[in-house]
Amino acid sequence: MKRLLWRHFYRRAGGWILTLVLVYGVFIGSLFVMQRSLMYFPDAVRFVPSEWALPEMKPLPVVTKDGLHLMSWYRPPQALDKLTVVFFQGNAGHLGYRNYKFRPWLDAGYGVLLVGYRGFCNPGSPSEQGLYMDARAAINAIRAKGVPENGMVFYGESMGTGVAVQMATEYPHAVGLILESPYTSIPDVGADRYPLVPVRWLLLDRFDSIAKIKKVHMPLLLLHGEMDQVIPIKFGKKLFAAANEPKQSYYVPDAGHNNVYNLKVQQIILNFLADLPTAQLLDEQK
Where in the chain are the domains? Predict the structure, then answer.
């Protein structure tokens, strides 16, 4: 009798385990298929700079290597010795929500290029390699307008820090790199947040900044909120430790992921920009 009961129990338990395995497999499969819709959250509303107190920003149409016609936005530097800040946004919303970041750069006379991503008020769907193509197309468009590589500073925000680091490896003569709320890699952050999911096997878009940062030799400014729950500060600190000199960091007390940019941070950024070399820009104009 006891043997029959145990056999019945094992059958039931085996059925439960098989069901759990099947449910888990379906769940993981769904995550794999849907991963980009869970990673990128573009705003469907079209970004119009004049509606966001950025009337200086003018359209910069570009064509990517894979044939997409995208819109970025550009205001040239207002003096020969002024750099151009190339901005790569995070994974949500549109560029207008960041207008408070750009305003001080514009007022100080810097050139500003707001890189338009595919799928973000533009045709196409975002992906890691796609965003790299979008960034290259926008950078090459202002180079064609006369902005030299050594007149650029790359600024990445959140997910956009991965794009900024990649561009810093491809355009090594740029004079500065600013990373706001960066990560080591997307799989690192995902595995930390979802320990029961095989994130490292599933992710297509990896943005492996920790593997690339040693190739970057331009001055670095890294900013991160100490209370960041989206990309915990430990990832920013690990990336900073791996980076080459010269480098500086500021960890913002009591700041989370979306409120890093305060008046002190604004001044730190302006000071960083002012300290970057610009003499070569004047020499090239002679």
Answer: 1-34, 44-285
The bridge status of strand 69-75 relative to strand 41-42 is: unpaired
Residue 194 has pLDDT above 80, yes or no: no
Q: State the pLDDT confidence band at 24, using cuts at 50, 70 and 90.
A: very low
Give, in order, the Cα–Cα distances in Å from 49 to each of 17, 98, 129: 55, 11, 27
Q: Is the pLDDT of residue 36 over 70?
A: no
d(CA 119, CA 271): 34
pTM for this entry: 0.91
For the chain, give the longest Cα–Cα distance.
99
Judge contact between 163 and 131, C-beta under 8 A: yes
Span between the terminal Cα atoms of the chain, in Å: 99
What is the Cα gyration radius of the chain? 22
Tell the CATH superfamily of the 44-285 domain. Alpha/Beta hydrolase fold, catalytic domain (3.40.50.1820)
At 101, which helix (H) or strand (E)? helix 99-107
Q: In the chain, at which residue ranges do the beta strands (DSSP E only) sit?
A: 41-42, 58-63, 69-75, 84-88, 92-93, 111-114, 152-157, 176-180, 220-225, 247-252
